[in-house]
Structures are given as C-alpha cells and as structure tokens.
C-alpha cells in the first residue's frame, strides 16, 4: 500500500463546505474514526475529512471537485464490510451516503422500488413486507448495512441457495462515475440486450468505478412461514448427503453449517440454549419454505431417513416462528460473537459438489500450521461458501498474528486455486485480499479489470488501492 496521500488543503475543504454545508463536512477526530473504518480492524483509519452529501447533485459536485484536484474518495455505506473495502487510511475523503435514504416509486406491477444508496437493508425488507412482498437478500448486518454498499460488494448472505446474490435483484443503478457524470444503467428493464450491461460491472466493484447513488430493486412474492431444522452431523460428507436429500425433495430457502466450537462460543456469550443435548462435530441449519403446507411432515420424514443412514445424529425442528428465529440465532450470531477475538477471516468457495474434499485439504493445512490457534468454521455451505475464522490469542501482537495467518493463507489459497474456487466468495477484495487476487483471477483478467476502472475513473480517484494497487492501474 502506498504512503499517505497529500493532505486535503483548506481551499479544497472550503469548496467542499460550500457544496454540502458546514455541518455536513466533518473533520473532528471522532467522526474521522467512525467513518474511516469498516468491520475490519487491521488498518488504522486516517481519512482527511468526511463529507455527507444530501443529493445526487451534491455527489456529482464533490466528485468533480475531487477529480479536478486529484483528491481520492472512499465511498462509505453502513461500513459493515469485512475486507477493508471502505477503510480510509491514507488521508482520503470519505463520502458517506447516509443521507441518500429515500424509498419511493414503488411499482406493484413490476415489483420494483427505488432506493437511495443510504437505505438500510432492513428498511427495504420492512418496506417490502408492508406491500405484501419480500426482499430476500439477508445477512447478520441487515440492520446497519446499506443498499449502496450491498450493491458495491454484491452482498450474499443466508438465502443465496434459493434467491441468489444482490446482483440478482438489481433492476437498475444510478452511478456517479469518476468524472462526476451520472450514469443511469438498465433503467429497471427485465430484457435489455442493447450492448454491454454496465450495471453488472458496477455490482461488486467495491466503489472503485464510481459512487452508487440510487438503485432500483426487484422484490419477490412473500414466502410462507418457514420450517427451520438444526441437525447434528458427524462430518462434512454427511452434511453434503443431507443437502442432497432435502434439496431433492423440498424448496430450501437456506442451508448453513457451523462447527461445535462456533456453537460453544454463541452459547457461552449470548445466553442461548443448545438445540439438543448431543454434541456433534458439525451442525446443518436448513430453512424450508413450506409452499404447500406439508413441509413439516416431509421434513420430519427426511430427518428420520438421515438418522437411519447415520448422516444425522440428532436434530430439532421449529414448531413456531419464535423457535425458528431462536434456531437461526445459533448461526447468525457467530460473526458478532467471535469479533471480540479479532478473527482472521478467510471467505472461500468452490463448487458445491467438491466441498467435502476441498475442506478436508484445507482442514489438514490449518490443523498442521495453526496448532496453537482456535479455529471457527461456519458458512453458506449450500452454495459452496465457507468461512474459516482464526481467533487471535490474547497477548499476541496483531502484526505477528496477521503475519502468521497470511503465511498459511497462501497455502490455503493454493488449494482454492486447484479446486477452481474463489479467495473471496462474498466479502470482496478490498485491502485485505488484493495480494491474493491472482489465486482466483488470471493476469489477463486483472488487466481487463484495470482497463475497466480506467474507463469509469480516468483520474484514479475512486477508492484507490482497493482490489489492486493504484500504481498498477492503466495510465
């Protein structure tokens, strides 16, 4: 990573203040720390200033000023990212989109709604429910993550096996590119083969192509109340057999897994109860959309079959909405629970069918090289995505911890590469993973990505240093 950028001088600060107003240009230390970081804690936040525009026009004016003066911009949403994609640590200008939080233009025929970039995910979910519809992209940070950030990271979460990623629900995007130009991409169309779909380039670009200011989102029909099961399973192979049985017979809304150490942490620190008395090495959480009212009976039949085959050792099925929510907490509370140990996270994936062999190889490398570290496994195994979390021992300096984890990550990513997988299934690259991008992308692919950035952001001001170093950008 490059050295600190030139300071944003008083003349530029004065012009920024004239665009957004003095109360919307923040320079106090508390604000710089708050807006300069995301959920990672590896890099110390050090932005030059924070600006909170209140309209698309203000965003454009700020970007034009930044482009003219060579000021780097870090777009900021709910700051719930896990790859340091929203971290400003070199004196950049943070552009927080909190004030662009309107929801409007709901169309019941098209089932679309327009959202400002600062709309919180839960706010959209509640709006959809009020219309008798459903916004299915869901994850633990839905109460604080923002739609613009979700689009910029292509957020996935717990319903991907049934509903896909954020990109599957984006009907249109308004983007202010690195020159201050406003692009209206796709305009809510279902069918649009008129050239390249630039909307899809913006989704998952981590703010490196411009500032997402508005998104037209699609909504789905509301599902019936789901049935939730938690099954104790002896090994990863059994988890995949359980997946095959249930996926072939019922509409799975989610299929998650977590390890016994993960469950122990959640129970110990969150006051939750074990789902059943029998401890097992792994647990599978299934959500079944009871489309025809017979899901409960069929779910129990399949559970009995899995027990007979030795694929499940014990289990529980929700009998109420409250119990379903309680079972979900066993999985959803893991990330927040282990955050106190500042975990080193690997967010890796391969095709679902190769998961058991893939994880067996990763497990062998991790066990051999992390004998003194506590390992927490969980993830969205139904879509091939697992999270490897290494907990930092108390007293071990962060630099030493990061170095040791980084060494082993290269060995883990060698395995990922051999399995044709991804070093970042859903968290993005940001600052944390850019040294490992070559394990998932060829040199030619990265060269094309750099050219795309050059086209959208010719001055290189949009979130520089994320995904790949600014020094490697096309000149």
UniProtKB/TrEMBL annotation:
Q: Where is the FAD-binding PCMH-type domain?
A: 43-222
Reply yes or no: does the keyword Flavoprotein apply: yes
Keyword list (alphabetical) reads: FAD, Flavoprotein, Oxidoreductase
Cofactor annotation: FAD
* UniProt KW Flavoprotein keyword: yes
Which InterPro entries does the protein's record reference? FAD-bd_oxidored_4_C, FAD-bd_PCMH, FAD-bd_PCMH-like_sf, FAD-bd_PCMH_sub1, FAD-bd_PCMH_sub2, FAD-linked_Oxase-like_C, FAD-oxidored/transferase_4, Oxid_FAD_bind_N
Taxonomic superkingdom: Bacteria
Name this polypeptide is given: FAD-binding oxidoreductase
UniProt organism field: Candidatus Marimicrobium litorale
